Amino acid sequence: MRKKFSEAVKDFRYLLSRNYNRESALAFVGDRHQLSKEERLTLYRGVYDPRTADKHRRKLLSIDAVRGKSLAVDGYNVLITVESMLSDKPIVLCDDQFIRDVSAVHGKHKPTRKTRNALNIILKVLNKCKPMKVCFSYDAQVSRSGELAALTRTLMAKVGVKGSARAVKQADTYALKSGDVIASSDAVIIEKAKKVVDLAGEIVKVVVLNKLLRLTEI
C-alpha cells in the first residue's frame, strides 16, 4: 500500500470521526492526495470512524449463528463480492471487520460464467450452515435480475437449500423484513439490521486460508 494512500486513510477516518459528511470528506481527501477511482472507492467502502465501526462489529455474527434460523440474503451484495474474489479483483478487510469488494458494479451487474460458480459456492456454504430457510432478494431495476432469481432458485433446489429467491423493487427493505439474520455487508442495511452475517466475507476468508490469496487490509 503506497504511503500517499495510507495518509489518505488516516485523513478520511479523522474527518469522519469529526462528523464530516462522507461524500464531502471523500472528495476533499481524494483530491488532496490525488487518489484514483479505485482508491476512492476503497476509502468509501472500507474506512469508518471508530464509533460506527464498533457499532457494526457488535451486530456481526459468525456464519454458524444462522443454523436453524431464517436467513435473508442481500443478493447482489453477496454475489458481487464472491464474483470479485473469483475474478481476482480487489477485496478489502474494512474498519468494521466486514469484507467488501470495490467493484462498484451493483446497478450494472451482468451475469457471466462466474455468476453460476459464485452462486454454487454461496449455496454450498449455506447448505453446511443449515439455516431453516434462505430468502435471496435481488434489485428488480437491475437488468436480468428476474433471470438471476430464477437461476438461484434452480441451484437452491439442486443443492438442497430451502427457501426462495426474488427480484424485488427494494432489495434492502425486503431483506430487512425477510429473516432473523441478514447476510450483507451494505452499511445501510447494517445500520438498520439487528443481526448481520458477512456471508461473502466468510467465503473469502476460507479461500484466503486455503489458497493464500492476498487480502488487502486498510
Outline the structure in words.
The chain is of the alpha/beta class. It has 2 domains: 3-47; 61-217, 3-Layer(aba) Sandwich (Rossmann fold). It has 10 helices and 9 strands. The strands form 2 sheets. Strands 1-8-7-2-5-6 form a 6-stranded parallel beta sheet. A 3-stranded mixed beta sheet has the order 4-3-9, sandwiched between helices. Strand 5, helix 7 and strand 6 form a beta-alpha-beta unit. The radius of gyration is 17 Å and the shape is globular. The mean pLDDT is 93.
Short description:
The protein is an alpha/beta fold. It has ten helices and nine strands.
Q: How many beta-strand elements?
A: 9
Could you tell me the CATH topology label of the largest domain.
Answer: Rossmann fold
Described by strand count, sense and barrel closure, the largest sheet is: 6 strands, parallel
CATH architecture of the largest domain: 3-Layer(aba) Sandwich
- How many discrete domains? 2
Order of helices and strands: HHHHEEHEEHEHEHEHEHE
How far is it from the N-terminal to the C-terminal residue, by CA?
9 Å
Q: Give the CA-based shape.
A: globular
Q: Helicity range of the residues? A: 40-55%
Low-confidence stretches: none
Mean pLDDT: 93
Strand order of the largest sheet: 1-8-7-2-5-6
CATH class of the largest domain: Alpha Beta
Radius of gyration: 17 Å
Structural class: alpha/beta
